[in-house]
Amino acid sequence: MIALDAITDAPYDAAMASIVIRNLDELVADRLRLQARLNGVSVEEEARRILTEGTKLTRKQIAAEAAAMRAAQRPNRTRAVDLIREDRDR
């Protein structure tokens, strides 16, 4: 039985994390086992490969995300000298 439960940092290796998946459909688990067997690796290694490949962003996707963030920000038209003068006049 496998649902995305938690990702926790392993105390002995900060670069690695553990994940528990509960309530995974048996058909999906069977396909994962078969796929692992066909690739000659463990189910865990196959799941790790699938997760790694499925979470990679392309340069184009990263650029699009950055452009969307920039577009959502309001431009700052206030000059520092104006703020300093305003503060001095208080």
Describe the structure.
- By secondary structure, this protein is an alpha+beta fold.
- The chain has one domain.
- It has helices spanning 26-39, 43-54, 59-72, 80-88, and strands at residues 4-10, 13-21.
- It has a two-stranded antiparallel sheet with strand order 1-2.
- Mean pLDDT is 84; it is low at 1-10.
Secondary structure: elements and pairs:
Elements: E1 4-10, E2 13-21, H1 26-39, H2 43-54, H3 59-72, H4 80-88
Give a nutshell description of this structure.
With 90 residues, this protein is of the alpha+beta class. The protein has 4 helices and 2 strands, in the order E-E-H-H-H-H.
Shape: rod-shaped
The total strand number stands at 2
The class by helix and strand makeup works out as: alpha+beta
Stretches with pLDDT under 50, minimum 5 residues: 1-10
Averaging pLDDT over every residue, what do you get? Answer: 84
End-to-end gap = 66 Å
What is the chain-wise order of helices and strands?
A: EEHHHH
Largest sheet: 2 strands, antiparallel
Q: Determine the number of helices (DSSP H or I, runs of at least 4 residues).
A: 4
Q: Specify the oligomeric state.
A: single chain
Strand content: 15-25%
> Order of strands across the widest beta sheet?
1-2
Radius of gyration: 24 Å
**Domain module tally:** 1
Helical fraction equals: 40-55%
